[in-house]
Amino acid sequence: MKKLIIANWKLNPSTLAEAQELAGQISAKAKNKVVLCPPTIFLPQINYPNLGAQDCFWKEKGPFTGQTSPAQLKSLGLKYCIVGHSEKRAVGDTDEMVNAKIKALLEHKITPVLCVGFGTTVEQDDLEVVDVLKTQLDTGLAGVDASQVVVAYEPVWAISKGNPYATKAADAEHAEKMAIFIKTKYKTGKVIYGASVNANNAKGFLQQPNIDGLLTGGVSLIAKDFNQIINY
Asked: Which is catalytic among the residues 18, 154, 173, 176?
């Protein structure tokens, strides 16, 4: 079965020409299903089979400066949207806001990719991590069909590239345990892993039976390495 591998480009690259060049270097016929999430401003001009957004707002229209609605994303043909990313939670997104975004996305038949794991620390044991995830999932998935949601386990302490919370990468065994917990309790669609994924450790995560894919960051900006990952 194909795995789902999502590329979160974050605030990269700087120009449309660079974004189009990068997208052109990524295999459109990979072994696994690939979703590119470039900066919103570039989305209409990126040619790739599956595109997603990095975030959205929960209202369709109105006096909400700088926001992008699920209806607007749907008009671009988008199929996926990340919500609850640790970088958004760090600047104020609450579980209730994330839940509102998920509901709005599902109304427009866009698959939400719910990130959980913000607030976890490397010192916590598996049971303590589960307590953090339970709080985020109970609220984030309230009132929605969880089978229509992709959950991305994103332990904030394992995220690299200048993140002040990052201390070490999570191991595949730990990620697998969290995936089993999420699937068993919440009956979600897919559970994927994201945090410091690279060409060296990606295969270990993808080999786990309950990890359905990856949410990648920095490595997705390196076409050679990313092509290797999406073809494992």
From this structure: 154
Q: Is 174 known to be catalytic?
A: no
Cα 122 versus chain centre, distance: 21
Contact of 6 with 35, CB cutoff 8 Å: yes
- Give the pairing type, strands 213-216 and 80-83: unpaired
The candidate with the shortest Cα–Cα distance to 45, out of 21, 63, 9, is 21
pLDDT in tens, 166-208: 445 679 999 999 999 999 999 999 999 999 899 999 999 999 9
Name the residue ranges covered by the structural domains of the chain.
Answer: 4-230
Q: Identify the DSSP state of 192.
A: E
Domain 4-230 = CATH 3.40.50.2300: no
Residue pointed to by tokens 């660079």: 18
Instruction: Give the active site residue among 85, 107, 123, 128.
Output: 85
Residues 225, 183: contact at Cβ < 8 Å? no
85 is catalytic: yes
pTM: 0.95
